[in-house]
Amino acid sequence: MSAIALVGNPNTGKTSLFNTLTASYEYVGNWAGVTVEKKIGSLKNGAGKLIDLPGIYSLHPLSRDEGVAAQYLIEESPEALINIVDASQLERNLLLTLQLLEYGKPTVLGLNMIDVATARGIHVNSEVLQDRLGIPVLPLVARTGKGCKEILSLLGQSADIPPVRFKLHYGEIAEAAITSIELELQPMKDLPNHRWIALQLMEQNPVVLDFLKSRMDIRKLVKLGDACQSELQRKNLALTLPQWLRSVRMDYIRSLCLEVLDRA
Ligand code: GDP
Ligand code: K
Ligand code: MG
Questions:
Q1: What is the mean pLDDT of residues 95-105?
Q2: Which site in 38, 80, 224, 248 is 20 to 30 Å from 30, CA atoms measured?
Q3: Rounded to 10 degrees, what is the CA torsion of 216, 79, 62, 116?
Q4: How many CB atoms are closer than 10 A to CB 50?
Q5: What is the pTM of this model?
Q6: What pLDDT, on the 0 to 100 scale, is given for residue 159?
């Protein structure tokens, strides 16, 4: 049975959506080694099981609790993702969205809290957002269940969710390092999207580093990241590699928000 993971920032409505989309809990407990609640339920339309991941702002964890989501993505490799975002705080939420798109699995964006956004005079143009990100974007009010049926029917045909074609360009220097790391990863089977891993590695995501260490000799990969960092510095860029990747993402998000947000 396919596994679909629900991912998003804290307090965006994940649990509300989880409760609306699932018929029953299959499992409620804790994630291994942390005190964060783990919930798995069966989707009402029989499309698979839904996993409620802990709320995070980025895949790069700042604590062990926050590491659960990255750990899940790299170890369990779900078939599809639902990324729920708060429409009233779109700019902040999209940082995680970009990292999830790079993961490369079929993804549906749940644009939640539409009622809150509307009350604050914020209108999100979901058609343009859908077009730019290349994934289905569904406006929701998870608290009342509005829009949730549409998510279920999309997931019912998850084979029909278009593959993610989103690809952010990180500049020539970083792109060359990504390509070299991808090449090193090529012989490794059963790994999620290699470009995603390369980027997470270059961001020094400790969860991804530890996972790879348990599978392979990562010294060469680390060297490629270090060389990229030195190259950026030679170009007088006063940013670390993780900061550079983040700044490219933030620039993209700012220009995307200019396009899709109407503030009354
Ligand atoms: P989680 O932390 O992502 O699991 O978010 P929850 O589902 O626990 O929701 C956080 C709070 O937001 C709760 O008080 C929900 O009732 C509320 N909430 C969730 N979805 C919506 C929505 O679409 N509109 C409004 N106004 N409130 C919502
Ligand atoms: K909460
Ligand atoms: Mg929750």
A1: 96
A2: 80
A3: 170
A4: 23
A5: 0.95
A6: 66
